[in-house]
Amino acid sequence: MAAVAHAIGRSERIAPLPRARPNIVLFLVDDLGWQDASVPMHSERTPFNDRYRTPNLEKLAARGVRFTNAYASAPVCTPTRTAIMTGKAPARTHITYWTLNKDTDTSRPRDDVAAPDWAVNGLQPGDHETLPAILRSAGYRTIHVGKAHFGAHGTPGGDPTSLGFDVNIAGHASGGPASYYGLQHFTVAGRQGKPPHETSSVWDIPGLEVYHGHDIYLTEALAIEASRAIRDAVDAGVPFFMNFAPYAVHAPIMGNKKYEPNYPDLDDRERAYASMIETYDVALGALVTTLEETGQLENTVIIFSSDNGGLSAHARGKAPDGQTRHTHNAPLKSGKGSAYEGGTRVPTIIAWPGVTDSLQADARSIDTPIISHDFFPTIIGLAGLQADLGPDRGSEIDGRDLSPLLTGRPQLFDADRVLGWNQPHQWGADGPGIRPFTSIRRGDWKLIYFHAGRRFELYNLAADLGEASDLAAEDPDRVAELAGVMEAWIERTGAQLSIDKTTGEEIERPGVAARSWIDQHATSGAGSTP
Amino acid sequence: MAAVAHAIGRSERIAPLPRARPNIVLFLVDDLGWQDASVPMHSERTPFNDRYRTPNLEKLAARGVRFTNAYASAPVCTPTRTAIMTGKAPARTHITYWTLNKDTDTSRPRDDVAAPDWAVNGLQPGDHETLPAILRSAGYRTIHVGKAHFGAHGTPGGDPTSLGFDVNIAGHASGGPASYYGLQHFTVAGRQGKPPHETSSVWDIPGLEVYHGHDIYLTEALAIEASRAIRDAVDAGVPFFMNFAPYAVHAPIMGNKKYEPNYPDLDDRERAYASMIETYDVALGALVTTLEETGQLENTVIIFSSDNGGLSAHARGKAPDGQTRHTHNAPLKSGKGSAYEGGTRVPTIIAWPGVTDSLQADARSIDTPIISHDFFPTIIGLAGLQADLGPDRGSEIDGRDLSPLLTGRPQLFDADRVLGWNQPHQWGADGPGIRPFTSIRRGDWKLIYFHAGRRFELYNLAADLGEASDLAAEDPDRVAELAGVMEAWIERTGAQLSIDKTTGEEIERPGVAARSWIDQHATSGAGSTP
Fold first, then answer.
1. Alpha-helical runs (H) found in B359-509
2. What digits encode the pLDDT tens for the residues A55-110?
3. Which of A372, A518, B285, B437 might form a disulfide with B339, Cβ 3.0–4.6 angstroms?
4. What's the rounded Cα separation, in Å, for the pair B309 and B311?
5. How far is residue B246's CA from residue B262's CA, in Å, rounded to a whole number?
6. CA A197/CA A184 separation, integer angstroms
7. Which among B185, B211, B290 has the least Cβ separation from residue A213?
């Protein structure tokens, strides 16, 4: 596969390599939408960019590269997080939805289609080689901080240390925090105003007992612990990989009162959300400070991203354009859980000292589509381990080494590759595109196959970023062509589609389904579009 | 001495003793004035009590005893702090002023009198038996957190671990913080808006590197570290003594933005000060939470106090009564550095689970005068070590075991003992009573001997808490009598008086000086007062 060729061949093409074995910090904010920063991820600034305050991310962007077409591997958390850990698309691992308790399917039931027999326990030791295990075997200290959400409660994968992490700070099998407040002990009971340990909940944050009763925000506590872990690694003289995942800005929307006064013009809920955003940014700044003070900043690659699109279903406040609900990722459509761009497009910035900061300005904003599981071979390459990624391993890896893009040699990267998403599940909330689906993007074109009703939608993202004009009916040839590409992608990854509840069988593959759909819906004959 | 008799005899008088070897937390706020809490320390609530928010201190008071006549050992920091560590009045140790650098006298020069040859290096290992060393030898883990200020920079005593502490968190030889803000790295350079390590300063806080770059307040960082140290001790199964001294509310007055919005009616500086007060209270609550979670609350004695009166010289804002400067301890006169009550009277609450919480309400507010160095024999007694305090040691100890007062048996405590203060130094700021002095209190009467000019002032604190009516001229017999008592106290403690710069000799002892003063100033003949 091309991905492997990139990974293996990198050191031959790109020279000189910076210092061997840099530290790597993956700063993975939760549910962070494409617009949830003051750094523009769109070709132009938006009202959201002006609303939020993320000066530390701006500084990171100033010495890094900014990806305007970066995607999460999935519209919800666990699939993306495990894709990063394995380098494999969720379609391949069958970890296609978020996990919680052992042997329990969290998919919301529907009348027409059901989830397939997916990996309801998430990532488990031995199932796949994991990024931290590979790095650890190469001498890295591997540190997880914050939300893990790799495997289910009651399974080994619920504990990040079973998956290759040397250190686990506050990570477990749950994907959201009971509370962001140390005064509430980060527990459900505390949030309900009861004695914080009166009842226990799977959502209670583990391992931060030292912060119980202190008036501190969860993101801040995690950042302090991360600073401590970084200092410990530096003191020990070992390179480190840190997966910093601050739970925020996942629901519940609970403000940080230090920053809320910075947003006097917003309503209470939006003010709280904006303060959560500012808090992650301050945490980023604090980690950079730690790296500076320990003399490691110039030897540390920082990757900033999100695990899925921003939550739009629960937003109560008004977007800058005056619309409510599902506009929180504008100009993108919909949000977390959706097949539309708002569900998967995420802010992504990578700063590689001595490399990205020496690029020309026009090479610092990259339009090439990338996807979360690209971080796997990229990080392995950064660690100088490309030779270890042999064909036997590489044949299973869907991610591609991003180093050509990071080093200003985009011509060495396959910009026209097919990216695919597969979520044969109904997410909990209602909203545009929040339905079981498979989708692919190739170039500017995106085809969505909605499993229930076997419906297709086609968008040209270059012309129609907001997915307002579905072109499927007027461009059946392209639907047919891309349905074939999608089918090939399904074959290649082993993706599972939804189960038709009437027949008990998997629904039709997109090639077959597209032919039926075109017969019924196409407004023009075959060949009407070039 | 009576102090020793109390200490040695305690177990015979007071039974049953609660669980052996309780943990002990001394929560010693810096420069905290008598009115700097919502808990009233006066016989009635004051406007300051209504201004400030200290709900956790209120809870502590609800299960503890409140001392309305508690005094610091001195009007400035080092003397009180070392008096607690040694059980000896500053007059006895000759540590009568605050220390900073080795062999350097920090006293402000005056034209008329000079400081004597005092212990400019502060407390040094081997000079005196220290409280933590005694507790450590009995199996306690001894933990210092925050401001130490025991000995000078460049001397062993500058490091708390040289004085018997097993653990030192952020303590050194300086008595004030460069900055309260983690974003400024707690350094002078950071506070000045420069790169935080561009210059170094003796005021920079050591040992909190993990918090650099984080948006956290110093008191909060110290409280988190304290919680960690408590948990470590509990995990190790050892009792602990913690000297928690949060630097705050010492200058610089720098607000905690989380709490500033709670004080909309105050001016900027008073709002910042109020937020510093609320922050110490939240820290107290957090330590109580840690004790609760570790199952230690019922086995931990908490002593809450301050090291001297509240700063009044620098206050710019108006007091509730509309006056400015030196009214920040109203109804007391003046503040830190002064011979008047505002300089030394401090809030003090002690909660001894199973003991103070079982007292009748009328025994919970204690008017008996006490002084900081009483904590030394009290804590040693609490640790079950009274038998170790033999006469040879005891003869040097000025503090008295407070357990009779804590157990509701005030008749066993000598309420009429003489308390003395001796500060043969000019403090840096100007203000009422901020001059070299010696003073004593016996019963309701207080005599002050101001060294420059050999002046005497006499107050009846029962009738005149605010020291508005100096009775010395109209009651020369009492001046003469108390001058004799003062002289005896000077003899007993070995107090050093100021040096007359004209003669180069120590000034007259109060007995001689009082006779001269009475001859010149008395408005009535001997015997005019009973």
1. 375-382, 391-394, 403-406, 476-493
2. 999 999 999 999 999 999 999 999 999 999 999 999 999 999 999 999 999 999 99
3. B437
4. 7
5. 21
6. 9
7. B290
Partner residue facing A210 (CB), from B214, B215, B224? B224
Q: Is the distance from CB of A510 to CB of A489 less than 8 angstroms?
A: no
The whole-angstrom separation of Cα A363 and Cα A507 is 43
Identify the CATH assignment for A436-521 out of 3.30.1120.10, 3.40.50.300, 3.90.1200.10, 3.40.50.150: 3.30.1120.10
- Give the Cα separation of B282 and A381 in Å (integer): 47
pLDDT of A416 above 80? yes
| Chain A partners within 8 Å of B210 (Cβ) | 224, 227-228, 231, 290
Residue B211 sits at the chain A interface (C-beta within 8 Å): yes
Q: Tally A–B CB contacts below 8 A.
A: 85
Q: Whose CA is closest to A508, among A454, A457, A466?
A: A454
Give exposure, A94-132, as e/b (b: 16+ Cβ within 10 Å): bbbbbbbbbeebbbbebebbbbbebbbbbbbbebbbbbb
Cβ atoms of residues B46 and B65 within 8 Å: no
Taking the C-alpha atoms of residue B388 and residue B394, their distance in angstroms, rounded to an integer, is 10
Among B215, B282, B293, beta carbon nearest to A212: B293
3-state secondary structure of A499: strand
Spatial distance between the Cα atoms of B43 and B367, rounded to a whole number of angstroms: 9
B430-489: pLDDT as tens digits: 999 999 999 999 999 999 999 999 999 999 999 999 999 999 999 999 999 999 999 999
Residue B274 — φ and ψ, nearest 5°? Answer: -60, -35
User: Touching check for B223 and chain A: CB below 8 Å?
Assistant: yes
User: Token pair for residue B425?
Assistant: 């130094």
Band the pLDDT of B7: cuts 50, 70, 90.
Answer: very low
First-to-last C-alpha distance (Å) of chain B = 29
Cβ separation of B231 and A214 shorter than 8 Å? no
Alpha-carbon dihedral of residues B83, B85, B87, B93, nearest 10 degrees? -50
Cβ A224–B231 below 8 Å, yes or no? no
Fold of A2-180+217-268+282-350+359-412: Alkaline Phosphatase, subunit A (3.40.720)
State CA A201 to chain mean position distance: 26
Amino acid residing at A411: Q
Write b or e for each residue in A460-486: b if 16 or more Cβ atoms lie within 10 A of its Cβ, otherwise e.
bbeeebbbeeebbbbbbbbbbebbebb
Dihedrals φ, ψ of A101, to 5°? -110, 155
Strand partners, A51: none
Which residue ranges make up each domain of chain B? 2-180+217-268+282-350+359-412, 436-521
